[in-house]
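Ticket #4471: structure output looks truncated?

Reporter: J.K.
Steps to reproduce: submitted the chain below (343 residues) through the standard prediction queue, then opened the result file.
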Amino acid sequence: MVILGIDTSCDDTSAAVVRDGSVILSNIVSSQSEIHQKYGGIVPELASRRHLEMIWPVVDEALSGASLTLDDIDAIAVCHAPGLIGSLLVGCGFAKSLSFARAIPLVAVHHLEGHIYAAFLEGNPPVFPFLALIVSGGHTSLYRVEAFGRYHELGRTRDDAAGEAYDKVAKLLGLSYPGGPIIDRLAGEGDPRAFHFPRAYLPDTFDFSFSGLKTAVRNSIQKELRRADSMLSDGFRKDVAASFQEAVVDVLVRKVESAVDSCGIARVVLSGGVAANSALRSRMQTVAGERGIALHVPSVRLCADNAAMIAAAGYRHYCAGHRAGLDLNAKAYLPLGSPATEI
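Returned output as attached by the reporter:
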């Protein structure tokens, strides 16, 4: 069974062709980083306009890369929530039009569900039940995944997502956008013990909070600017990056360890854009090895937003008999596991 996946949830336009929910025939991602870089973050209006320009060329390239045509597609899977509403509307509108014009079945996929099933696109997929930590620019959530369509949220961020905190700290340091990869690189050259930034462990919950950490970083930067006559040295930036990243990784890993102990499940999926972070991947692999946890982390290219993961989840929806109508609408906010996602 061949699924065409479409994802326009944020600032990347992506289309992919996936066979049987696990074999990637093509996975095309058109990045908008260059457009948003000068603004230090994503400008929603610019993102949606760029999606309008790129959606058909990207889909066409995905089909060509798979050496297939629309006649070979069994179903179209589109990300309809959550995300930037203008961006989501482009993908949903295009997918519905294609479905109507070519009489191809349509299925709706939740963005976070896509991140979970990114772990099924490579060898050795996880066995149900498992825990899933999804860490990205818009989300930091921990789930217990009982089976396909059965998701229990254990915790989520109460303020900033981890990836959002990375971008904001990068901006405070005068670095470019997107900030996550830059901070990850600088952290490798800095001292993670140079600053003892706070960790919001939020005892007795699986929730996260990164706003206090971000404020502590800002205060340290302002203090250094006053001391150094409005100049930040490269060494200072590297040490702040390393210390900030150490704090984020500490919290994420400890929450996973706590969930493993509480749920009695030693199988973990780590996904989302921040799952590409080298320190987080390394620490999780170390802890997994020490504690006998079966850890599943998609390759870096599948951590960021992409349509292959949407197609992987869409395949399972299609097999379960789920279909979306032409009244499918985009939703900026939709909790995973609510009745609306279990169509």
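Triage note (M.O.): checked the attachment and the full token line is present. The mean pLDDT is 95.
Status: closed, working as intended.
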